[in-house]
Amino acid sequence: MPAGPERLDATDARLVQALDADPRATVLALSQQLGLARNTVQARLARLESGGLLAPFASRVRPEALGYRLSAYVTVQVVQRGLEEVAAALAAMPEVLEVTALSGAADLLVRVVAVDADDLWRLTEQVLALPGVERTDTALALRRYVDHRVDPLLRRAAGEEPASG
Fold this sequence. Notes:
- This protein is α+β, with helices and mostly antiparallel strands.
- It folds into two domains: about 10-60, Winged helix-like DNA-binding domain superfamily/Winged helix DNA-binding domain (Arc Repressor Mutant, subunit A, Orthogonal Bundle), CATH 1.10.10.10; about 70-140, Lrp/AsnC effector binding domain/regulation of amino acid metabolism (RAM) domain (Alpha-Beta Plaits, 2-Layer Sandwich).
- The chain contains six helices and four strands.
- It has a four-stranded antiparallel β-sheet.
- α1 packs antiparallel against α6 (about 150-155) and α2 packs across α3.
- The longest helix is centred in the first third of the chain and has 13 residues, at about 40-50.
- It starts with 9 loop residues before the first helix and ends in an 8-residue tail after the last helix.
- The mean pLDDT is about 90.
């Protein structure tokens, strides 16, 4: 993974907040809402997109809408020096949504989705069969209490107090 993206300034944070509130907002609407020149908004959006500061739109699609009702986290222990190969093999599996390298007993945390319990079994067996994988442990996600969010961080970056919930 490349080095992290550059840091957002307060204006960028306000722009991303406005875009998060209304993803279909036009550049003109954003510029009016934020009190910025249209060219400024357009240039900042282009920089944010090209710099990798904005996640792809597909990350907003819920897997349940595609028939994947089960979500699980699989921790994976990998043989020494096999991390890159295992990560690449996991990236080739459509049901793998995220792969994160960890410190500690497990080497990778893999977020997967499945249609049902049998599909999850098939998927975990497929992960375990990958060359370089020593051991896996699967935990079924039962309920999400906090969805992925960055709004409190954007509020802080924009100079606002994060809303306490």
